[in-house]
Specification:
The protein has about 90 residues and is of the alpha+beta class. The protein is built from 2 helices and 6 strands. It is globular and about 40 Å long.
């Protein structure tokens, strides 16, 4: 089981509306989930990430997976890197 008391993972989540559902995505971990409301999608995404991290920990690959995703460790805190800039660009 992922020991959230021994370590904390902070990750970036993106949310989108697709028809009648809200979809949440953690791009660095390639984990997604959904809900009928934004709040439900957030809860569902947190549960999906926790299940993913638990499985990685059970397989002994948690630190490797987090490092490959660009999530760095400082003490018991693992944090996703943030973008230097975010823009919507277009090409014609």
């Amino acid at each position: 089981m992922f020991d959230s008391m021994a370590r904390r993972v902070v990750f970036r989540a993106e949310f989108f509306r697709e028809d009648d559902l809200y979809v949440g995505l953690v791009p660095e971990l390639d984990v997604s989930s959904f809900g009928e409301s934004l709040k439900a999608a957030k809860v569902s995404l947190k549960e999906a990430v926790e299940a993913f991290l638990e499985e990685c920990e059970a397989m002994g690959t948690l630190e490797e997976v987090l490092q490959e995703a660009g999530i760095s460790q400082e003490g018991d805190l693992w944090s996703a890197r943030g973008p230097l800039a975010t823009e919507l660009l277009s090409v014609s």
